[in-house]
Batch of 3 targets.
Target 1
Amino acid sequence: MIIFDSSTLILLAKVELLKEIVRQLEMVIPREVERESTVKDTFDAKLIKKLIEDGKIRVAKVRGKEETEG
């Protein structure tokens, strides 16, 4: 499993490598990355949104530092 940030995800979509990567790896992104990556009406944002809808990219809640400290 690999967790990506929004800039990496967007750049992979722009250079048309994202589809190939999701075929080979389990990809997980935080909810904030989903929001940042799909907010615009661009090719890369539409591709990322489609891959999320198709279950190729999983969106997960990420625990913050304050949630992991006990």
Target 2
Amino acid sequence: MTAFSVSPVQGFAQQTGDGAPSFIQFQDDGVNLGGPDADTLNFGAGLTATRGVGEFENVVQVDTSVTFRDVYGDDVILPDDAGNVINLRGTSGNQVLTFDGGALLPGQSVLVVQRSTAQGEIVVSSGLTLLCRDAFLPWTAGLGAVITLLLMEDGLTLLVCGDMQTV
């Protein structure tokens, strides 16, 4: 998940009255993204910060959005799936969802929802590790099951947790 902060910009005149700065500085993980003239910034992964106008000029609104991708057969996790939801809609057998690296950055996650009768099975490509609790399989447990896929900090381990099939 992208971290961001809103903090006063240095080097600008103080606002009269309450002594607070009259400008804000957008930052992403400590990197300045725009000065007092920045109105809208897209932080990626569905996060947008917008400065208000008129009487709301000192207000910053942060909007998040989640997209849903319907998958009807075997598929792979895509970079655009980060922070979003994959709806598994297969109707027979297991529906295999493959993580082959590079689609997610460490710390990014994807929600997977079983929306039909086919169970979702999570697999990883060669050289990657799939991690889940010993008593569970990396499969959705049934209709309506939700599992989370999280790429760990090493960038090589995909953690699967949630409503999973028991061994």
Target 3
Amino acid sequence: MTTRTCVAALLVLAASCASGSKNPTGGAPASAASSTGGEPSPSRTQRNSNVITESELQNPAIISRDLMSALRTLRPNFFAYRGPTGTSEPGAGEVLVSNDFGPLQSVQTLKGMNAMGIVEIRYLKSDEAALRFGLNANGAPVIVLLHSKNQ
């Protein structure tokens, strides 16, 4: 009798282990699903927190907004206040904007812009901005808008 009980218990244990290795949808184990090739699932794609891609900007909920509110929705950390950065200049540490690495402008210019024609938006930390824009960056982080070449 104890042999039958042990065999039954092992069968139940084996069945529960086999069902536990499948993904929640009842398909193949998760390791097999990720090794089949093709595009990674949207939940598995790595998103760079300092870059907004054209595909993100083309989302209907985003493209209908001005660029300031679109960026606040997609990457609110782009606008986080960083405080003074060792300079007493007015506006030091405030986020600046550049179109295609051109002259720096106030972040308020984003309110009058839309996402049409923009292929990428990059966030440069204050040290990266200082390397790219020199003293003009004034110790501030910079949002760089990269436009399509056939604009």
